[in-house]
Amino acid sequence: MIWRLLHYRSGDAFENMALDEAVFRETVWNNRPPTLRFYGWRNPAVSIGYFQDLDKEIHIDLCRAAGVDIVRRITGGKAVYHCDEVTYALAAGRCASLFPDDIYRTYEIVSRCLARGLYSLGIDARLAAAPPGAVSRAQRPSCCFSVPFGSELLVEGKKICGSAQTRTHGGFLQHGSLLMRFDPEKNAALMGPRDPDAARTLQSRVAAVNQVLAAPVSVEALCQALQRGFVEELGIRLVPEPLTPAEESLAARLVKKYASEAWTRRRKKDAFAPAGPF
Amino acid sequence: MKVFPEDLLYSREHIWVRVDGDMATLGITDYAQESLGEILSIEFPEIDMYVERDEAFGSIESTKAVVDLIASVSGTIVSVNEDINDDIGIINSDPHDTGWLVVIEMDDMEQLDDLLDAAGYHDYIMQQEAD
After folding, report:
1. Alpha carbon separation from A176 to A36, A142, A152, A262 (Å, rounded)
2. CATH of residue A158
């Protein structure tokens, strides 16, 4: 099976999320083969999950003061501080028979690909077991990297990749962050409850590629290793291709949505408010 | 053990439909709630909003994914299940009854002919799992 590869590029938070959604929508609408892409963050940013409560979980004033953008994702999960990292995004439609119609099995397959890529760099990442029981809403952390969920990747018990997913019409978008370096103080300052031990707790739970490896690797080397992981694990071919004009056009429209205050703040106070158009 | 009540119709998007005259009650199937895992949040349409078949009428979030809710029929939203506001867990615990999501006043009853009966949906699930 042939997948499209979009070469690494660095964008701001709004461009990154717009392009992920544009590729996802076009893939599902047109039943195209999967697209894998890697990207970086031109400006540091905090991304929050589709249903997350911005005011409760993010220190907006501190983000603004630090020049950190805030963007709401269309995927679920918790907040991520994006700075020194490589983000992967995989969009697949219903025709992608390698992936089951199941959230956790899809996580597992993608994690196996990422783990294989990391292993080629000398990082032994293992899939986390499913959590032993339900965690109440109050106990859920604000930060994605605080807790591993089933099939996410751990290195010596520390989470090295935080991922999130959305699904529609049998297709999915899954994207996730592989940290090159982790800054626990910054993470603790920008999101979650104000807790003097938060940075230390995060430090004990999070792994970053260039803090695990004795000899640091470049972004390019990491991307190449991850690409190899997908190719070898799934037996696919990755063919570099550009965006289609339709994707370019949709992404340009979606940037405005992602940069708008209305979208960033759109989480409803209750379960019954309407979905807003983009 | 997944449950497939005989008195419901089913879509391939894992939505069940209970028909009463021109009113269709929709919810997610037992298979869907099991696949999603613990459901945390839901986004409903507004009352009186018109929804098209095969379009999203809302979304639902479980621990690690947001999933669109795809309408099985076209029509006007006349009711949403406000009990979910008090206890979203009923979608997981009783998806085919108290965990219903919305009621749609249908404007094209023939769309029901495209849905699966319980045996057809069961076979569809088995095929999905075999793939």
Report:
1. 12, 16, 10, 24
2. 3.30.930.10
